[in-house]
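#structure-requests
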Amino acid sequence: MMDRPNISQEKLLGHNPRITISGIEIDVLNAQDTVELVEQYVISKTPLHLMGVNADKINEVNTNPKMKEIVNSCGIINADGASVVMASRYLGRPLPERVAGIDLMVSLAALSERKHYTVYLLGAKQEVADQAAQKLKEQFPLLQILGVHNGYFQESDWPEISQELKALTPDFVFVGITSPIKEYLIEYLQNDGNNCVFMGVGGSFDVISGNISRAPKWMQKCGLEWLFRLMHEPRRLFRRYFVGNWKFIRTILSEKGILRK
């Protein structure tokens, strides 16, 4: 008999405790709470878009109304950024912790091995996705990976991908594609009748496969993982972290001013 986490049905139906930062709803959940709640979606076969937001994502959705609608409609929205957690505390609505996307993905893979749930990897180059699948199998030998598909396809290919997922019926689909295409694709797949947990995982396939190094644990704990990434990819990430973070800080300061008034 499968053990059921002690998470109420009310939460499952979208009544998770939430705060709002810059118009974006975020669940007041730590990593363990998130895993337990996600499993309720799997057990009940309720479709879920599992979303993680950081400063860059909040900047992005506030200039893209369609993205903002998609993000705020997700069943679970985690703070996947130290800056978002710090902002929540500054605004007097503290979140418990950062729920890093790659750590959550690995935790869900561990859950899947333990409870015999199935997964599908969608995104990145085919070689990288295959390597990520191999690494996951090495870490979790009993993990059932039903399929691996690269992220290099057109919107015209979405129906074919949807049909494959319907045939395989995975419990989890980890999507390693850039935004906003990732969010648009997940919305399409859900609307097309795929009742599984979709999670956007950014560049996690590259890290899990070993093609990109992750920050040391001490930098992760100090909220400096962004600095490690910037040091390794300065040209690609300079604008995101310096221009984007200043934009996010200005937004939070403005929101604090409104709260004071």
